Amino acid sequence: MDPLVPVGGSPLITMEGITLRKGDTMLLAGTSWEIRDGQNWAILGPNGSGKSVLARAVKGDVPYVRGKMIRHVPEASGERIGYLSFELQEELLLREDRLEEARFFSGGRGHALTAAETLGLGDDARETLNDLNDVMGVRPLLNRSLRALSNGEIRKILITRALLQSPKLLILDEPFAGLDVASRESLATAITGLMARGTQILLVTQRLEEIIPGISHVLIIRDGRGIHAGLREEVLTPEAIRPFARTADTLPPLPRPIPVTTAVAATDADLLVDMRNIHVAYGELTVLDHLTWSVRRGEKWAVVGPNGSGKSTLLALITGDNLQVYANEVILFGKRRGEGESIWDIRRRIGLVSPELQVQYRQPVTVREAVLSGFFDSIGLYKKASPEQLELADQWLDCIGMAERADRSFNRLSYGEKRLTLVARAMVKSPELLILDEPCQGLDRTNREMVLALMEGIGRQTSTGMIYVTHHESEMIPCIQHVLKLGKDGRKFRRESHGRMQAGQEPPRQANG
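^ that's the sequence the OP posted. Answer follows.
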């Protein structure tokens, strides 16, 4: 990319012909780019293009091996450049989940991390936030447990934590990932307010619609290099944004057919999931109340609702990751939880795909081994696979177009390739129930449509039951038969969906849940 010297204030970050290094991989060779005082930038690019690596280089967390980088921000090593990513949030929640499990098995001893403690604030928390004018609106959340907050609320807490360092530049890497429509709008308004108050923003995204008002400049990265940079209105031309815009109403074809296997039901129970009068609360906060819901063999369900409505809690009751399942009447595959069936007996009949699983899956395995680990419900492969299992794993890799990458390191795949591999991992054992928790989160348009096509193929061509959680109605695949909608006020109802929902279109309601 040619050196960019935008018109504006004094330089903040200057890169001259740099090449970045991530592990043993060289990225964005010969990149020249400059952020000046008063400018708010967006980095737009597909999965694997290097946009997050470039943002981390601005922060100072990724080394450059060639060229020259000058940070004109005082104390740029961390105190004056704030940083937030979805991975940072997930790591925080994973640590808290492990502590919560330890507290449960120690008889409830220990202290759940609060929002105020996450911010590093003591008794003067409210006064400190008053000094900031509480731009993100988090003061009502301070005394609540971190685990009781919604995705959007946690995102605002972490942005506030970065703001407490009074950064000149705040880097937000995919800040809207996993948020419902209202939370996305609220966060966009809050970020716009930050820009109006003088905090410069560097926004990293792969969705064109997330480039919010107030972003003055855009850098587009594709194929490992910067291809366009400059004023927003000059960069976002119809030709430049075509790769990021939806090109068709139909899903793309899969590289190969879905592998056909005969799933053997472990029981004759028609009900895969049967929940009766469910109540889940964290302290004084009730997440689910009087919920009765069932999923029959072969049914395809979507679960929708705003952040904080209990979607993740509902899934955790099924997978066994929420210990309040033992205080409720939850019957899985014909047996009530807590009456003798182990968590491993449950999990071997469930396939799971989620952004959290992708964060956890960091074992040094090949792509084929990652798929094979689905047979054993392990993160990493610790048992020898049979010839039949090897053959089926290769069929799934062929289906998703990953056969040529079978012997490549899983951790060297792009973000979207990892997600496709994890769908194959979930399906390789022919589960009775497939749980898809925001499977398109963090994916660019091409990878998003391929994952949706794969899910639609599974829904149409297999007998596996499906529970699909999404915040984007445009991602509602046609095979979905039923929708469970959860509300923050405890309302829930079931409704039919005949065909794909379009953005903003409400499907007809069937009956109260």
